[in-house]
Amino acid sequence: MANWKYVGLNKDGKRVSGSVMATSEKEVRKILRNEKIRARKITPPSILEFDLGDWMVEKGFAAPFGPEELTNFTKQLAIMINAGVPILQALEIIYKSEKHPVLKKAVKNIARDVGEGQSIAEAMEKQKGFDNLYCNLVKAGEAGGILDDILNKLSIHMDKQQKTKAQIKSAMMYPFIVTAIGFGVIWGMMVFVVPQFVGMLADTGQDPPAITQFVIDASEFLGNHSVKMIGIFFVLFIFLKSFIGTPSGKITFDKVMMKMPIFGLIIIKGNLSTFSRTLATMLGAGVSLIDALDICVETIDNGVIAEDVRVIRREVVQGKTLTEPLMQIDYFPDMVSQMIKVGEQTGQIDQMLEKVSDVFEDEVNTLVGGMTKMIEPIIIVVLGSLIAGILVAMYLPMFMSAGGAD
């Protein structure tokens, strides 16, 4: 925000002048209209007062804030409300200390709307980055007078959700990165190192063994067609990304990923953990089961599991318990279904769902650790064997020539 000077006429027609803090001329005029002042001249802030962050947000150049920034904001707001700080004062303190320009502007807008009489949830619904889960929980916290407790639960939920997503992403990216680096090394050997040996072999005048000839032919192919291959892979990548961007493509891709060894289990357990914890948090805050299931669909990354949750919601609307449709899903463990059934019977379903989420998180940790230990030696053996095969193929004619000379 910066200091804008103005000259105008008040409601009595008298000339007035002054300054207001705002991010743009449009906001200045809005503020003045609310004060019944008709602006005649507005002077923008000097370059010394220019706020680059506000300007980037206004022009759409600033990156949106992510879960980490939102989690920190939630924790700070919960602490201050619990300490008895009035909501407007708490928002003002967070605004002054916030570094992310988009979240900083969102906090300012929320404080303005709350100051005008709107609820916190209503003000947050207008800002990008505050999803339905967040806003519904805040609304429930306001209605029940337990906003600080709800914000604490929300921050814990977001922390664990991001941790689970990071584990899934790490499990998928680690082997890809290691394999890509390994094949990059092999490509460099085939394109730049093997041709050096070809000249040396030509000087001996002997026919190379079959394995050596195969490596030489592969080297020539890569040297002549690498650019074309990169272009083809790039086109395939764009096509695959576009296909996954469609609803049917997303479902197909998710089905394939779910059937992959180990990776599939990690994806399933991770998404079920997110589903269980989200549902537990919503029910614990007093949100109805139907509305909670609606919001759960939005938080699940996997299209197949999200569609199954929609089916669960439809059956619950028809009068079935939560356990009945869950037991019909083949990838949902029977033991977990029984735990939820006990929670329904005892009236402690939210607490049981939290325990279920903990079970899934532990299983994801175990799967990721086991996969890493298993994949590392496999990748090392495969890539090492390929590199060793190339070296043996190149040195074999020399060893044969040396043996013949003896």
Please render the helix and strand layout as text.
Blueprint: E1 2-9, E2 15-22, H1 25-34, E3 38-43, H2 52-59, H3 67-82, H4 87-97, H5 101-115, H6 120-125, H7 132-144, H8 147-204, H9 210-244, H10 247-259, H11 263-284, H12 289-299, H13 303-317, H14 323-326, H15 334-346, H16 349-405
Antiparallel strand pairs: 1-2, 1-3
Helix pairs in contact: 3-4, 3-8, 4-5, 7-8, 8-9, 8-11, 8-16, 9-16, 10-11, 11-12, 11-16, 12-13, 15-16
The CATH homologous superfamily name of the largest domain equals: Type II secretion system (T2SS), domain F
Q: Give the strand line-up of the largest sheet.
A: 2-1-3
Listing every helix as H and every strand as E from the N terminus to the C terminus, the arrangement reads: EEHEHHHHHHHHHHHHHHH
Number of helices: 16
- What is the number of strand segments? 3
CATH topology of the largest domain: Receptor-associated Protein
Query: Termini distance?
Result: 86 Å
Rg, rounded, reads 31 Å
Kindly estimate the percentage of residues that lie in beta strands according to DSSP.
5-15%
Q: Quick check: average pLDDT?
A: 84
CATH class of the largest domain: Mainly Alpha
- pLDDT < 50 runs, ≥5 residues: none
Assigned CATH architecture of the largest domain: Up-down Bundle
Shape: flat
Describe the main β-sheet briefly: 3 strands, antiparallel
> Could you say how many structural domains there are in total?
3
Structural category: mainly alpha
* Percentage of residues assigned to helices: over 70%
